[in-house]
């Protein structure tokens, strides 16, 4: 029941425990992002995005705590139950609820069986909450970060203690999108052009197109001829190896 319905029914509305403190902490964390973003520009060094990514991650953890917990199945009765790999269209993902629904269809049959199975079934897949948080598509640029943060600011402005749970869910999703963009911008740039070692240093002596110092070193080692191993003379027990000095020490 929503807060408005509870108030209309005369039962009042009680704020969930911890929501005032968590909401105040979230508002403060999101409000401080402007100080970090003010000095950013296109082509900024990845280390300059680290403070933004850290602040967004802390804000996301707080926003996720304010929103209802996401479950594997999306079923309020069996949040951590098994997933149904063969769920029909329009059914939920909870294997227990779907199995209960199938048994109701088989046992009763006809329209009465379908009605009973519908009552026993969980919410449809479209109404169930997904487990993962949304991840935006690339490219990840400063403009994309500003776009997601504007959406966060709009939702944060209208958020209150009596806001419905769906508003907190949407805010957590938007903060997660902004965090993903900031995290990708804080990664080392692929200056070497190597897909295997994106953050590798550049080899100044490598030919064009082979600037990765790790790949260049591996290629040199592969081209180097394998010399025959040199066997040292075996030392008998009780003897000491006589080391040959390349240069004699000066007298005195």
Automatic annotation (TrEMBL):
It comes from Streptomyces globosus. It comes from the Bacteria. Residues 106-130, 189-208, 223-252 are annotated as: Disordered. Residues 106-117, 240-252 have a biased composition (Basic and acidic residues). This is Uncharacterized protein.
């Amino acid at each position: 029941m929503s807060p408005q319905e509870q108030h209309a029914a005369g039962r009042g509305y009680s704020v969930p425990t911890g929501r005032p403190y968590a909401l105040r902490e979230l508002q403060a964390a999101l409000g401080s992002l402007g100080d970090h973003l003010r000095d950013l520009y296109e082509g900024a060094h990845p280390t300059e995005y680290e403070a933004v990514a850290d602040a967004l991650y802390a804000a996301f953890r707080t926003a996720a705590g304010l929103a209802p917990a996401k479950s594997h199945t999306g079923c309020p009765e069996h949040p951590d139950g098994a997933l149904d790999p063969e769920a029909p269209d329009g059914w939920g993902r909870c294997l227990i609820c779907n199995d209960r629904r199938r048994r109701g269809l088989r046992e009763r049959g006809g329209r009465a069986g379908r009605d009973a199975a519908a009552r026993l079934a969980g919410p449809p897949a479209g109404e169930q909450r997904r487990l993962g948080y949304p991840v935006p598509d690339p490219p990840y640029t400063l403009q994309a970060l500003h776009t997601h943060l504007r959406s966060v600011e709009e939702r944060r402005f209208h958020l209150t203690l009596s806001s419905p749970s769906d508003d907190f869910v949407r805010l957590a999703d938007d903060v997660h999108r902004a965090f993903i963009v900031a995290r990708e911008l804080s990664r080392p740039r692929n200056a070497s052009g190597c897909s295997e070692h994106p953050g590798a240093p550049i080899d100044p002596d490598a030919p064009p197109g082979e600037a990765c110092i790790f790949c260049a070193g591996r290629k040199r080692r592969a081209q180097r001829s394998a010399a025959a191993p040199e066997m040292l003379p075996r030392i008998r027990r009780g003897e000491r190896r006589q080391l040959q000095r390349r240069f004699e020490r000066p007298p005195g």
